[in-house]
Amino acid sequence: MTESPVTSPQEASLQTAVLGRRGMERLDLLLLTVESLDFNGGEAMLWATQQLGFESLFPNRVELWKRRCHNPLRRSTRRGRLGSAETEALIRLLCAMADRLYPMLHQLLSSREPADLSKERWALVDQRLRDLIAERFNLRRGAVQRLLSTDHSASIQRQLVLTLALAAGPGGVDRLRASLLDPTP
Strand locations in the chain, DSSP E? Predict the structure, then answer.
């Protein structure tokens, strides 16, 4: 008789955790923010998937893109939900990218940076993120219009960069997972 491995209730819930609609939107938006911070973000993500051992889930950029298209805000979206393995891999990928970009995230969030330099950096991030959203998301959706509106975009972008900074370092995977699984907006 073989014994089944003992898992804690927390580990069991993580194995079956699947992101809802808002969680998937937020995860894809965070990955898009990574791309806006790093001009080679798409290639860096592909390289990171290989380093993390996720070649079987994301063997190429097309498969990575297909998983990200489960976001309902995208122009071309896929129905259904991501499996728990793909969700966990994307969360770990995002945290690895946040670790890599942490010095830039720190500079953006630092109050010690000169105001002019900080404003210039945020303007670059803002323009790049707006361009990526306009290119890849369905512009008829109200949530996308809110992301592109000048009234809301600055606070949303700051929250995205702060979330990426919190996803970096030890415990970042758990913090990000808890944030994405939280049903409140």
Answer: none
Q: Using an 8 Å Cβ cutoff, are 164 and 98 in contact?
A: yes
Count CB-CB contacts under 10 A for residue 79. Answer: 7
Neighbour-count burial for 155-182, b at 16+ CB within 10 Å, e otherwise: ebbeebbebbbbbbeeebbebbbebbbe
Amino acid at 176: L
Angle subtended at Cα 161 by Cα 155 and Cα 167, rounded to the nearest 5 degrees: 135
Confidence at residue 164, expressed as pLDDT on a 0 to 100 scale: 95
Kindly list the distances between the CA atom of residue 4 and the CA atoms of 13, 16, 129, in Å, as whole numbers in the listed order: 17, 17, 47
Q: Are 102 and 170 in contact (CB under 8 A)?
A: no
Taking residues 38-62, what's their average pLDDT? 90
DSSP label of 74: B
pLDDT at 173: 94
| H/E element, 133 | helix 115-136
Query: pTM of the entire structure?
Result: 0.86
